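Retro notes, structure queue

What went well: the backlog is down to a handful. What didn't: a couple of records were mislabeled last round, so from now on we paste the full input next to the output in the thread. Example, using TetR family transcriptional regulator from Streptomyces bambusae:
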Amino acid sequence: MPTSAPPSNRFERRRAETRGALVRAARQILAEAGDTSVSIQVIAERADVGFGSFYNHFDSKTELFEAAVQDALEEFGQTFDEHLAGIDDPAELVATSFRLSARMAESHPELMQVLRRRGLGHIHSDNGLARRARRDVEVGMASGRFTAVDPTVALSALGGTLLSLVELRFARPDVDGDDAAVNLAEMVLRMLGVPPDDAHEVARRPLPDLA
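Corresponding output:
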């Protein structure tokens, strides 16, 4: 779960713990089946909190599930921040993001199932991975590493391709996920204007350890 400054007193800590428990329960439900029609009572029981506590934090299930998706996407982005620190080449950042995402289907299955089920509606979000991806694309264009195009269009292409890769990892577990991610990363780099030989090499650079 994304980290934040700890609450300053016992009441605020308990309130934060209850809200966190509800968000975790909603994330689990989204990851397992994506069924947002479950009752608030079921959510509260999953979170191990009182039914009445729900409305102290959320006005509706829709608000809770949206918070759960945002929480998952921010965790996704923070995970990448941690593992991509020190990489300055925008092309390598994009390629490594694709390849790590394929591996996270096994290392972070709940998180990736939430992305799989709800990520499409957040490709252009101001938070989570989308904000970071747009930053990397804009840096790549400003530096001449990528062809100058509309960053919003580029983000649509990157997000759609990434979600397709995530779907492939879950829908076709027989397919070599690492190999598929490398090939997709190379294709995306070429789409962004990286020369073919360069794209081939960058997409195969050593990966940081997800452990």
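Agreed that this is the format going forward. Reviewer comment attached to the example: The chain has a mean pLDDT of 90.
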